[in-house]
Amino acid sequence: MPVRRFGGHRSLVSQSHPPKLSYGYTKMNISRGGYRVFSANSSTACIELAKKITERLGVELGKSVVYQESNSGETRVDVKESVRGQDIFIIQTIPRDVNTAVMELLVMAYALKTSCAKNIIGVIPYFPYSKQCKMRKRGSIVCKLLASMLAKAGLTHIITMDLHQKEIQGFFNFPVDNLRASPFLIQYIQEEIPNYRNAVIVAKSPSAAKRAQSYAERLRLGLAVIHGEAHHSESDMADGRHSPPLSRAITGHTGLELPLMMPKEKPPITVVGDVGGRIAIIVDDIIDDVEDFVAAAEILKERGAYKIYVMATHGLLSAEAPRLIEESAVDEVVVTNTVPHEIQKLQCPKIKTVDVSMILAEAIRRIHNGESMAYLFRNIAMDD
Q: Would you call 235 helix, strand, or coil by DSSP?
């Protein structure tokens, strides 16, 4: 047996049995870290959705406290466990107080960022301020501002559902997964609406025609479009751009004679398509102020529809929406649980809820495991 010297000490090394090396540290480095799911507010609806998601994932809901100071109203977040090196998913539903919900999300994301979380993914089924995604007159694109704030707070990824405009994804400098609720709503139509084969899918305006066409093609049903509006939603005259300029001495060039744009005239409300003796199913992404839906239901009733459903992903149902629905010709309003609406359901039994926690849980699992998200977008075309 050969003898080797190390620092003046004799050591016997067997050639037939070389020393065993430990690779425990290498294995620890390549293993994937854990993940936690937190609720960004303490409302019943948000915690309930978070619990449904964690139950499907087989994990426990993360321990945290989110509250507002009683004297100052400031948002405070206390994370009660270590998140170092983990993927963190923040569930945030948007209640009536949208600005408080946004601050809760920002403060929690920043708290997790400073606690050395590896990745911070916001699960925001209804993305707030999504209607303010275009420049209108002298306003601002608030949705772009919110995207920048979320990135600054520490979010690295967002999971959302049925953005009001798909182009909103371009406001972010990190990945955005825009899931679809239509498979769940289509399943509801097939299982809960008797004789749905005698139905027709209705777009309450030409702008909603693409969404309605997608539903109609998947269900193999007819399509109808309501054209025209009973009132003007916006008036350029209120902008002040047609007001006379201040009188002042004009010197030099007086300007060019530009051709005037012909003013738009809204046609009277008409229904393009046959709804007589049929079930009418109005589809949209958001149902908030329900006056347009109620007016559409009246028109469809006059045209011979004997039952009227309204299907939407996000049921904001603000102001007097429950009372107006209860008194209208609408037979049923079906929305998902992306937005809390328990109070509205108590006020109006016509409102029904479809659970979408399954697809949110699957998205969380796939993102954490580094799996492809293509499975969640099967048979979804670019214009859907």
A: coil
